[in-house]
């Protein structure tokens, strides 16, 4: 099935075409299908179960709610409980097969979870860059396009019984601390960027390709996780299974919740996953206020709430939050949980009902939410191979176009952190020998990060670079731990080279699920390797950092012998080709850091267990993320260089913004001088916005992508810990040499210019605000 390129990606089409052309040589041959593949699991197979004919739950033309009610009314209590677990049990008498809910699609169809298998006839799937690098593109259209491809490959695999239809992705937690091993899975530290990524990715996964506009039907079902304030795995003995995150209402509303809210309200996500940890003393999967109250009540989730895997077991056995297993089961379901990843509810829900702790009506509600999701996926509509996606199969996986998109995503995400004049890009014609050194120089598995599947075919950094120029290679270290750096061996290899590429960093043995970092420096003796090789080099030295989180590479930033620095995240299966594209100037880098890079001193000032975002000078606490952090940085959020230069000029923006309050408002009754803010929830705030138009010009000699990032800062005298600045909007664009375009932003006064107070209430701050893009600033007054 062909994938239609979104119109918003058309500016990047020439680059994408180049990517596809350059990828052809590394593409695997189309796999011949040796034998008919087994069919996918589905219910209501009337050809095998004629007795189901006429039953409402098997009638696709019937109202969905009526279908669900009909089915639930036919199930016994034990059969209902069997559909409260990720390994849902079959109900043969009603023609319902077993179903595995747990599949993953974080940045490609993943092998994590029992719902997906990579076997013939689909032994691999496209592995896109890890999320943190994709987020660095700041390209919403690209987020959406990647998810569309992932959902197509997922449906293709489902049709040959190799995956499910419910994918527990994306991870939208805020990357609060650089030590977090799973920060690589997230879109970064900014709530707006994370929210926009979440919405675009969820819509790309879920929306049908038939342009019907029917948002009820799903292509696949996405899940936003891990709700909420979850960002610690295993740090100095503090485990995610027992960690109690003490979070102020201010930080919860201001920082941790926005991506989840956007997932539900704007993305219409089918599911939210509650996390292992406690928040303020309550397990998230057993907190009725957080689940039933917020997700379903305030935000209006139309779908199901699922636990992280075995989190109910952890709640009972490790957290010891309840006295008995039945009490834990009852607490979870009564709080709003619908599905248990694991077997805890299957083992204990019946006993909870028998003891009167759990009403069958609560079970009905939960199983109805689960079954309604499966209805939306067509699971109860008969053979899916006769439905809209029935023609998808092995030939729709690992296509040239899909791998080309993976390469384009990596190219757009790569961040140029430093570039001394005359260093990058290298000219292939001028390079007779390129030295490639470092423990990640020939990396394969390290490139795809965690929650990945079996990739179609790797292109390592060494392979990508070798395809353009003659190379010599030395690893320099046995692995990323680099207990001993072979400096002499590396020096011997680089002796005759015109330029040196050093590929260093980490992998899943340094930062990953269940593993947080303690330090921010390059692991082991990698710094020594870099410095010594740079000192001995006779030409440009390009440092390439492969990692999920930021690294303290101040030494390289300050070293004149290290002429350029690139951060490439975990760039996906064709990451090596993307790195070569940037190094040799086939692609002009346009990535921007989606997280702050801190110095090593940060880890001595900040305990990872401290959830507070705002600084506290009294205890020497510098705060977290660019919005609040007051200390030194190695590279700031949003940093990223290009091979060209862009100028910004303000075209349109207001000088005054008036809030239309009712005459009886307390701030108008002679008390206006005492009013420093108004409630953003007030009716007068709805729909109040203004336009900002900026002219952006490429003043250089190269075509390049550019992200325009619009920030706002509150008045200087604002109280209550407002962010020093926050992202209001961003736009990705492509400009040729000397080209100029107008970029338009619509600023929502009550959403973008507000701050959350200590009680969790959002307020529009009155007074002089500041908008800024790069070095351009504009002041305006918000008043009543």
Amount of helix: 25-40%
- Please give the largest β-sheet: 6 strands, mixed
SS elements, strand count: 27
Please tell me how large the radius of gyration is.
27 Å
- CATH fold node name of the domain at 406-619: Rossmann fold
Order of strands across the widest beta sheet? 11-16-15-14-12-13
**CATH evolutionary superfamily of the domain at 406-619:** Glycoside hydrolase family 3 C-terminal domain
Helix count from the secondary structure assignment:
22
Kindly estimate the percentage of residues that lie in beta strands according to DSSP: 15-25%
SSE-based structural type: alpha/beta
**N-to-C span:** 56 Å
Name the poorly predicted regions.
1-33
CATH hierarchy class name of the domain at 406-619: Alpha Beta
- CATH architectural name of the domain at 406-619: 3-Layer(aba) Sandwich
Report the mean per-residue pLDDT as an integer: 93
Shape type: globular
